[in-house]
Write a structure and sequence with these properties.
Length: 160
Amino acid sequence: MSIEKVKAYFAEHGMEKRILEFPVSSATVELAAQALNCEPKRIAKTLSFRVGEQAILVVAAGDARVDNAKYKNRFGVKAKMLSHEEAAEMIGHAVGGVCPFAVKEGVAVYLDESLKRFPTVFPAAGSSNSAIELTIAELETYSRFTAWVDVCKGWQETAE
């Protein structure tokens, strides 16, 4: 199970106890915000895309939407999200629990600028009813991110 891989990953860093598991679904931004009793924009949603034959992840704030022009400019291809089956196979996590931790080898992780306005954010932890609260520096460290990107829109209007 995917959450077990994430727990084992964070156990290597002495952080497995920080993973939150809920009795309700946190599979969408709205459901996660309800489960955590926080604003939806603080949910760090992890979006999975195909770039050529590779899978990539873009972690963005809950109120951000992919800007197709910015995405194509950054990655050289049109944004094409992975199907549910492809995500589970290529990333190692099922949709609803996709996160940037304990992913399959070769999956590049990108962090979107929309996250930088928060002291902490809540990415999923490998299941449709889990999350972990991380500072931005911790997210950088534990996601093993490749680069910061600016590929989203809609969040600037709600900046704090």
